[in-house]
Structure formats: structure tokens, C-alpha cells
Fold:
Amino acid sequence: MTEEVFAAGTVCWTRETRSDGSERVLVLVIHRPKRRDVSFPKGKLDPGESLPQAAVRETREETGLKVRLDQHLGTIRYDLSGNRRKTVQYWAAHVPQRTVRELAFQANAEVDAIAWVPVDEVRDQLTYAADRELFDVFLKLAARDLIDSFSVTLLRHGKALPRAQSDEPDHLRPLTDFGRAQAAALVPILDAFGPRRLHTSTATRCVDTIAPYAHRRRKAVRQTDAISQDAWDAGELDGLRALVSAVVARGKDALLCSHRPVLPDLARELALATGSELGAYLEEAATLPTAGFSVFHLSRRHPGAGILSVETYPLKH
Structure:
């Protein structure tokens, strides 16, 4: 039986403003002395780690950069020795120019040099064909001016006390011990995407699901009845539509924590607000277990270009 080895990495990029006022995109490549190759930051998962967490950690360990994941670019698969097969997931990751200027890279056991290379020169420098094929996805996005993106995360609340076991009104039902553990476990994987504006239903189970992440990031939590189950049950969707439109128009990484029956309408409105096609993929992205979430990546410069990519956690097999 073939042993599967999972890894994750990033294609880091920055937008440089030159002395004449023009801009150009630069992409980070790394040199690994042991393998004598040029590639992108990547590495294997630590025990208990998710793919997004690994991508962020490996990028920091190899380059010194702390990144936030943007759109998912794709998957590379190749065979290793000893009947093993490696699968590597990649995300784009924007790095501000100020961070690039201030970065004090230190050579390490894995990487002895890094370089910021003009986007049209990167492909020729990559050692492996699989990396070049992956980079072609990035090039196509760059050609359409879609690499500068933001994310909207739809999150279902953690496991709550069943209605039959609660004496409280529905919106006051608390999380169970398992639900609180789910909320705590969400922190590191949400942190890989870095949502900054946090919106939640006013229901206790939603507020308490996002509380640990909000505390970690020191972010305010915006409670709203617009995405509550009570409003949805009453057929009041105007507030939901207005919130989604405002989130898209703002163009900042955002998270909306809501309820199982509300999530499909949130996904639908997100597609409509960005000129995206409707389809089964939206239902799949909105059909989540407790504490499950889907990340929708959208173009910051051209939000009407549609949804660039969607990824759902926990991963569905």
C-alpha cells in the first residue's frame, strides 16, 4: 500500500512600486542547498496540524515571513522513494512591500537563500515541472489582475445543547463541552486565513463559537440579528442581503458565524453579490457540520469577477 505524505506551501508575492510610479509583481522563490533546487516555501504537516496551518508555519520557518493565506492555487502530487506519494496543497499569499523591505532573512538548514523575482521570470527559475504547472495557475490570475484577494468565511456554530435538554429560549442555548472544545480548536486554523471583521448571529451558541478566535486576535465581535435563525425562520432576509453586500463592498477579510439553515442563503447571496454562477458547489460549501466552515476567496480589485476559490473545513472525504 502506498503511504501518503501530506504537505502545504505558499506562493508569496508582492506588488512593487517603482521610481516612475509603475507597478510590478514580484514572487518569492527559495533555494534549498541539500536538494540544489529552486522552489516555493513548503513542508510536511506536524502531528495534529491542518494543511493551512502547515502552509503558514512552513513559510515562516523557511523565510521568516508571517503570511495570511489567500486563494487556493491547487495541488501537486508526486512519487517518493519507498512506495510513498506526496501531496502538496498551495495557497497564494500577499506580502506588503514594507514587510519585504524590513525582512531580515536568515539562512537555515532548509533554505540558504531567497529571492523576489519578477513574475514573468519565475517560471524559468523553478526546478520542477510540477511547480511550473502550479505557477501557471498563479500566472493566469495575475494576467486577469485577480491575485489581490480577500476572504469571506462562513462558519457554523459549535455543538450546542439540544433543545429538549435546555430550559432556555432557543437563541440562548449554550455550547456543550464538546462545542467549547470545537471553538478552541478553530483558533489556529482560522488564524491561517486571518479574518479581521467578525460578524455573528446574536444566538449564544454563535457568539461563544467565535469568542476564542476573537480573543486571540483581539478583534471586536459584531453581533447581528440579520443572520440569526429567528430572522431566517421569520423570512426576514433583507438584513442578511445587506450584510453580505456590505462585506463584499468593503473588501476586507471577514467571517460570518451563523446557523445550519441560514448558511445556504449566505452562500447564495455571496455568489449573487460577486456575479458568480449558482450551482451545487454552493450547497456543498454551505452544508457544514458543527464548527465547520467554508472560505470564499474574492478579488479585492474586481469583486464582480466572481468567487476565485472555495475551500471547506473539516475536509470532506
In short: The mean pLDDT is 95. Residues 80 and 86 are 7 Å apart (CA to CA). Residues 149-313 form a domain with the Rossmann fold fold (CATH 3.40.50.1240). The longest strand covers residues 3-17.
